[in-house]
Amino acid sequence: MLETFLRTIFRYHWRNKSFALINIFGFAVGLASCLLIGLYVFEEFSYDRFHEKADQIYRVVISHTNSGEVRAVIPGPLMAQAKDDIPEVLDMARHVWYWVPKIGRLNETNPEDESGLIRAKMRFVDPGFMRMFSFEVLRGDPNGLETPAGIILTETTANKIFGDEDPLGQPLNIPVYPEAHVVAIVADPPKQSHLQFDGLMPVDVSLNEYWWDHWNRESMNGYLLLQEGADVDAVAQKMLGFMNEHHDEGSQIPVLQPLPDVHLGSSHVAYDGLNTDKNDATRVYVLFVIAVMILLIAAFNFINLSCAQAAKRAREVGIRKVAGAGIIHLRTQFLVESIIMTMIATCIALVVLQIALPYMDVFLGKSVAFSLLDQPFLILYLFGIAVVIGLITGLYPAVLLSRFMPASVLKGELASGRRGTGLRRVFVTAQFAISVALIFCALVVTGQVRFMMNRDVGFNRDRIVAINPEKNSR
Prior knowledge:
Order of helices and strands: HHEEHEEEEHEEHEEHEHEEHHHHHHH
Low-confidence stretches: none
Strand content: 5-15%
Number of helices: 14
Oligomer: single chain
């Protein structure tokens, strides 16, 4: 029976090439657009979820009630006291950037030689950092930060400094640690991590007591690992008690931010420069809604075009019914036809997606990783979605076409009923309304961007220079 279905489907669409191409490519373009946006949305929501203990890790931020500002930086002693005095806290890690962004192999005959130094994003962290986060240790001791002057490098940084040599145990030129040496090599942090670094160094508060060991100085990021099922509000209240001992009561309130929320939930947080490429959750949700709307337009268009061909297929249905075909047989045929068309459209959409991704990377300013060869399960998942969409979009045309009465069709009297006509009008109206809404939103956003780019902001943009000290320090 399947062979008969396939032969009939092929013959019909071969005779109606224009209709088949418009229907398939229209759905493919809509699906490709949805997938492009979907990949971006999926990547944004996947930040920091690769850590095994992600659900137990919280970042501590401080809400300043006097100014209404929420800051990502905290006093260093707060984290140490939280670990010592709060039973629910299993571990803690402070995190701050290194103010001299150059490191390299130590020239033991001439320690002052800086010719071989490279720029690197080095971070001071507590030993709990490696216990808390699931960054992959390739070689060496994962607890190496507990060693005095023990330095952890990423694989890329180690290769830049030492080439093919084994870096473990090798001395490094880091002024704050004269005895610095490599204790471990970790894999480069995944893109979906708000914590990006080239190397890790142990926090030694004696290096910067004024900022790191004072309750009135905020310069460090802080992370806590809590017990499973711990009362987060209770922990925050205990930390508030610590803060009230050193500040005006209620003036600075610790807030525990779940690790998976740091990337998309920190648009309001100040002094958050180490939260790499943070985004706004509202923007991502809006893009998700747009992707769904585009998919609905493509689906409605598919249904409308299929129904528009009803008159041309009525005689085929009438003859097949006269020949003994039942309603179930006919509906199955049209559903199989719809599924095959959506699967072909999915294949085309995947090719379009692969071609368009590099241009999307340039547009977004970030890389969205996707490869057909590296994502077999995702491809199977997409084809599963194609089958479901094929069933949904093909159900109404299948019901409509199978309801034609043979006698009326063969007499040339085609009537599908007011209910069918009304439902098709709903589909057309919905498709038109969604299209108008998307066009209107695009025009509004374009107008706002044009206004912001062209309005007088009170200063000459060409004369303003932004300096990132981590990238430009010497």
